[in-house]
Amino acid sequence: MSLLYEYSGNLHVHTPYSDGEAYHAEIAQAALLAGLDFIIVTDHNVLVQGVEGYYSSGDSADRRHVLLLTGEEIHDRMRLPQVNHLLVYGTGRELAACAADPQALINAVNAANGLCFLAHPHDTPLERFSEPAIPWEDWQVRGFTGLEIWNYMSSVKQVINEGTFWQALRAAFRPEEVVIAPNPLTLAKWDALLSAGERVVGIGNSDAHGTVVRRGLIKHTIFPYDFLFSCVNTHILSAQPLNGDWQHDKAIIYKALRQGHAYIGYDLLGSTRQFRFSAHGQHGTAIMGDSLKLGSGVTLQALAGARSHIKLIRHGKVVAEAVDRENLTYTAQQGGAYRVEVWRIFKGKPRAWILSNPIYLEDATYRVASSL
Ligand SMILES: [Zn+2]
Ligand SMILES: [Zn+2]
Predict the structure, then answer these.
(1) 134 C-alpha to ligand 1 centroid (Å)
(2) Nearest ligand to residue 207 Cα
(3) Residue 227 and residue 194 share a domain
(4) How many other C-beta atoms are found inside a 10 Å radius of the C-beta of residue 103?
(5) What is the pTM of this model?
C-alpha cells in the first residue's frame, strides 16, 4: 500500500458565538498544546466566517501550526426539547435557516457539497440538573455522511446521569476515570445501518465548551479545551500530505472524512497514531472507508501500535479477536462491513482506545451505497 499521511483533529467545539468560553485563537492554542493538526469549530446555528486558517504557537524555537476550520452544529431551536443536532462542514455558507426539517437540511448540505454527521445520537438527560437529553430522533433521514460515534462530553453526561453520586463527582473532575467507551446504542445503530448496506462514516469528538463553574468570585474550568483535545479525536489518512496552504489542506481533510479514511482515537490512553486497518484481495487493496470486491476471500489486517485487545466486528458480531497483541489478521469469506475496535487497560479498567471506520467487502449478498 502506498504511504499514507496521518493527521489528528477534533471536529466539535464551541466558542462564545454560541455557548463556549474561548474564542478561536485561544482554541487554536489549546489544540496546539494537545498536539492536534486541525480543529473544526462548530457553534450552534452560526457559521463563523473569516477565522479559518493556520494558527501558530508563540515559541519561535519550536513553532508549530494547527489548521482551524469552521463548520456549525445546526438544530431547530423552536423544537422542544432541542433534539437532532447536526454537525455540518464544508458548505461555505450558512444553512441554519433549514433547521426545521432535518431531511431538507441534509439535502441542502449535500447540494452545497458539504458533509454532515448526526451529533451525540443517543445523548442521555442530566436529571440531576433537569437538563433534557438531546439525542437524534428523526431516524428516517437519509443522505447524511455519518454518525458522531463518540462524543466525549456526552459520555461524561451519561456517567453523571447513571452513576452514583461519587461517580458523578469524579465525572466532573476526573472524567478519564469513569469514561469507558462510546454509547453502546450508537455502536448498535451504526452496525445496523452498515449491515443494511448504508455507507456511514464514524467520527469521535470532544464537544468542548470550556465549561466554567462559578461560585461567587471563584471561577473554575472543569472541562478545559486542551484536556478534551487530548481525549477522543478523529484521525484522518490521506495519500496526499498537507502543504501549509489552508484551502488546499481543508480540501484534503474534508475529502478524507467524506471517504471514511479515518478512525476514532481515545488518545489520552496512549497515542493512537500509527493505527492501520487494511484489506488485501484478488481485486486490490483497501483502507478504512473503502469498498472492495470479496472474490475468493480478502485478508483483513489491523495494526494497533501497542499490545491491546483487538476485535474485528461484522454487523455487530465479533468475528475475530486478538488479546494482548499488536495486530490481528483475518481472512474474510463473507461479504459485509468490517470494523475494528481496540481496547486497552487504563486506570485498572478495559476501555475503548481505537474505533476504525469499516471496510465494505462486497459480494452477491452485500452491496454498499456509493459515496455521496
Ligand atoms: Zn449538540
Ligand atoms: Zn456541541
Answers:
(1) 7
(2) 2
(3) yes
(4) 14
(5) 0.96
